[in-house]
Amino acid sequence: MPKSSLRRACAALAAGTSLALALTACGGTTKSDVQKEGAGAAAAAGKADPHAVTKTGLTVGFLPKQVNNPYFTTADKGGRQALAELGSKYKEVGPSSATDTSGQVSYVNTLTQQQVDAMAVSAQDPGALCTALKQAMSNGIKVVTYDSDTKTDCRNAFVSQASAEDLGRTEVQLLARQIGYKGEIAILSAAQTATNQNTWIDFMKDELKDPKYKDVKLVKIAYGNDDPQQSFQQTQGLLQEHPNLKGIISPTTVGIKAAAQYLSGSKYRGKVELTGLGTPNDMRKYVKNGTVEAFELWDPAKLGDLAARAAVALASGQITGREGETFKAGSTTYTIGKDGVISLGKPTVFDARNIDQYHF
After folding, report:
1. For the chain, how many structural domains are there in total?
2. Beta bridge partners of 142
3. By residue range, what is the domain housing residue 101?
4. Tens of pLDDT along 108-139?
5. Which of 148, 226, 303, 345 satisfies CB 3.0 to 4.6 Å to 98 for a cystine?
6. What does pTM read for this prediction?
């Protein structure tokens, strides 16, 4: 049976029975067809053809951790623009809460049932989406994770905003310089299960083992769940619980903005340093009023752009997700690294000298 006919049959079956059962029973590509290479499910049967024609008319579904989150709005806009340029269609689905893991699962199932050609997913939990994503892959759908990864065998490739090690270590380096390499510090993270946050924090902890940080003490990791009010309250709680706190790292755009809002209007402004990952538009006034000396981020629009282009390259057969493969995205050629990771590049540090050069 041709793949298009098989997909229509599957859709009909899914309407009358459970989605999971339907997709397992008659996926366009069965689980046994998906060949796992190395640590990842790096693509379907056959080899990549870097010279294959870029397919048009594809549909790529974007599933961020949270819709209407300014960071993901910017990232997904980049994806939408890239797909328009490539002659394919963009659609976005997702939960309104950054902690709604079960909601993400249902949206993966929805995209699978709608028979999209590929999906770009920012995973809230490293394992919770795996069953649903594997069902999507077994039905011939290419899966790219971006911003936050799942397990390597649950997607074809991961578009990383930068090296996780670079991000984790540079956050500590930035803050340590600001506090003179001495004092208590805390971390204000997003959700406790967020894959990217936890990976960065692990590298932060490892960086702090360097003897040059012997007088820097990490006293607490707090979680604001990428909610402005919770992050604001967590910042307040950190300072009440640790009155000698000298600095805070918040590797989340929602968290750093909320922390800056609290510090800016409190007695701690200029006394407690804050750095992390933020957008220039969110942080501009806090840099200019002295609340924040420096922070960093990548361009989220470029991240969404690369996720979209990687999804199309996978769906076109130009890459499979295996280490060493290359593909062109715009004017840049990217090489797929270990475990199917595609790195956007090094983060940019923003401060009073350059922040007005950026608008996102």
Report:
1. 2
2. 118
3. 3-161+300-344
4. 999 999 999 999 999 988 889 999 999 999 99
5. 226
6. 0.71
